[in-house]
Specification:
Protein name: HAT C-terminal dimerisation domain-containing protein
InterPro entries: HATC_C_dom, RNaseH-like_sf
Low-confidence stretches: 1-32, 39-49
Shape: elongated
Number of helices: 19
Largest sheet: none
Pfam families: Dimer_Tnp_hAT
GO molecular function: protein dimerization activity
Number of domains: 2
Distance between the termini: 64 Å
Order of helices and strands: HHHHHHHHHHHHHHHHHHH
Structural class: mainly alpha
Mean pLDDT: 81
Radius of gyration: 31 Å
Organism: Stylophora pistillata (Smooth cauliflower coral)
Number of strands: 0
Strand content: under 5%
Length: about 350
């Protein structure tokens, strides 16, 4: 049997008009009747924003992203101050979709999205010399930056990074010493095709000159300023059960591990040298691909190679970056806000005592 819904004198559904007592007070407050001034402001925004009408403090940025995605079909990359390489990702997308920029600026001007910035960009693109320089700088930044970004993806990850850290750094150093510029060559070819008066060799030289100071800075860091740290990671390669096969370590290779202070003693050194033949034999044809499996390999061979296993445990604590630790602190800061600082201390102390 259905219960009739009470109606008021005008015939409206009284049940639907009754307030929901379970609604959060904050939501009730946000549903108040807008003031006349707010209505006028919203109408003004509607008239100026057009089809990208979005309210909020980051209104201009959101509208620009919506316009870009609407025109190009691709969501624009975002820059984050905590991810320096994200700026490179933005540059890369800009280079890939550079042909869409004039059309986007025209749409942004029509929709009154950041008009001052749009005018500046349009003036920049309308100047032939500035446009050429912009294309060259974008291309060379992508070519050189790609090696750094790939290394960063790995070195700011989790896991036993010490095994492969040196190889990643060495790859960047080699790329800087003998750089390859595919995007620069493609951009130069397009520029010369549009303007035969341009000289390809001069354009390439101009592009390379933009990044030469950065390359020299990195090589100085790699070979001079961070020499001890790089040498330590180079010595740690002998502890990787995959690379030890082609490294063919000798007593001198083991001696290089003394760069780690906690391994710089005769007892540890003698134990490693004594177990070296068994270690080399055990690592023949090891089918390991991911970094985590390397740690598992050492766990399996802990009893067979006690001295090496003990040394590996200590070296694994050495990380090439603090990214993993920073992620832990970020997670804790999200889980425990300012009013829960004492709870965080108690939680950490309890877990520490458990160990």
């Amino acid at each position: 049997m259905s219960i009739p819904v009470p109606l008021n004198r005008q015939g409206y559904n009284m049940a639907s008009a009754m307030p929901d007592l379970n609604v959060n007070l904050h939501l009730q407050g946000s549903q108040r009747r807008p003031e006349p001034a707010e209505i006028a402001r919203d109408r003004s925004l509607q008239n100026t924003k057009g089809k990208y009408n979005i309210r909020g403090t980051s209104d201009t940025k959101i509208r620009a992203k919506l316009a870009w995605k609407d025109l190009t079909g691709r969501k624009p990359k975002s820059y984050s101050e905590t991810r320096w390489w994200s700026k490179w990702e933005v540059y890369k997308q800009l280079l890939e979709q550079f042909g869409d920029v004039p059309r986007f600026l025209q749409e942004a001007a029509t929709e009154k999205i950041a008009p001052n910035i749009v005018r500046q960009l349009q003036d920049l693109l309308s100047d032939p010399e500035s446009l050429v320089n912009l294309k060259l700088e974008l291309a060379v930044t992508i070519d050189v930056g790609e090696h750094f970004v790939k290394a960063t993806y790995f070195l700011e990850g989790d896991g036993p990074l010490v095994f492969s850290c040196y190889e990643k750094l060495k790859a960047v150093a080699e790329a800087c010493q003998a750089p390859y510029f595919p995007n620069v060559r493609a951009v130069v070819a397009a520029i010369v095709n549009e303007d035969p008066n341009q000289r390809a060799a001069a354009l390439e030289q101009r592009a390379k000159a933009c990044v030469q100071p950065a390359i020299q800075w990195f090589l100085r860091k790699f070979n001079v300023d961070l020499y001890d740290a790089v040498t330590a990671f180079k010595a740690a390669r002998v502890m990787c059960p995959v690379t030890v096969g082609w490294l063919r370590p000798t007593q001198a290779s083991v001696e290089a591990l003394r760069i780690f202070p906690f391994l710089d003693n005769d007892a540890t050194f003698d134990g490693l040298v004594r177990e070296l033949p068994q270690y080399i034999t055990a690592t023949q044809d090891v089918p390991i691909e991911c970094e985590g499996r390397k740690v598992e390999w050492w766990k399996v061979h802990e009893e067979r190679l006690p001295n090496w296993s003990s040394a590996v445990k200590k070296v694994l604590v050495v990380q090439p970056s603090s990214a993993a630790a920073e992620r832990v602190f970020s997670l804790l800061s999200v889980s425990f806000h300012e009013q829960q600082e004492n709870a965080l201390s108690d939680y950490l102390q309890a877990n520490t005592n458990g160990f």
